[in-house]
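2024-03-11 09:14:02 INFO worker-7 job=invfold-0412 stage=load source=structure_tokens
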């Protein structure tokens, strides 16, 4: 039997780049998943549920699908991706001078040759980030770059948003969206080797 084929259930170029660091180039198959939180759902449960839903949305026989989700949590409030520049500026103002958590969940869902679920595993990584105190002009300038618009919490640690951060406790790739130390363990358990994989579709 052939090794299972790896699918990345995410449109994130950042996650593709992280997997490439492991020598993996999976087929990219972004899912269509409702990301509305459930009532009384904890942030941990929310990101883990979404990672599983994304991974399982379109996984086929002889495939293993990797889904992931990342959220910023300030106190008890989830900060997702801003819907417009005003929301991005508001998020950054709320994060200014404060410490928040970044939760990054990843999940594997695999199907065997007959199409039955053969793999179901997940991992949750948490990092803590402290922002510098930001002025209104600095926030406006960063928002004007457009970078915050598709990022949880309205910033990207690996790009220009990195200068907003005063302290990081945890792994940088957790904040980017995929803790590779856990990815390796999950993929090993699913029989995915660290080698380049070519998309088949």
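2024-03-11 09:14:09 INFO worker-7 stage=emit residues=201
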């Amino acid at each position: 039997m052939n090794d299972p084929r790896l699918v990345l259930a995410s449109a994130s170029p950042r996650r593709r780049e992280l997997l490439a660091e492991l020598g993996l180039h999976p087929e990219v198959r972004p899912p269509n998943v409702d990301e509305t939180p459930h009532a009384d759902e904890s942030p941990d449960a929310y990101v883990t549920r979404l990672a599983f839903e994304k991974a399982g949305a379109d996984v086929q026989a002889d495939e293993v699908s990797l889904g992931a989700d990342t959220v910023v949590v300030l106190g008890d409030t989830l900060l997702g991706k801003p819907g417009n520049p005003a929301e991005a500026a508001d998020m950054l103002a709320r994060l200014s001078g404060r410490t928040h958590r970044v939760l990054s969940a990843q999940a594997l869902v695999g199907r065997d040759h007959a199409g039955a679920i053969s793999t179901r595993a997940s991992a949750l990584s948490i990092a803590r980030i402290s922002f510098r105190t930001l002025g209104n002009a600095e926030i406006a300038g960063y928002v004007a770059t457009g970078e915050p618009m598709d990022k949880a919490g309205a910033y990207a640690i690996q790009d220009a948003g990195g200068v907003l951060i005063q302290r990081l406790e945890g792994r940088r790739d957790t904040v980017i969206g995929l803790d590779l130390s856990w990815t390796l363990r999950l993929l090993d358990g699913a029989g995915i080797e660290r080698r380049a994989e070519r998309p088949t579709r």
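2024-03-11 09:14:09 INFO worker-7 stage=report msg="The helical segments are 13-21, 43-56, 85-95, 136-144, 172-176, 180-189."
2024-03-11 09:14:10 INFO worker-7 job finished
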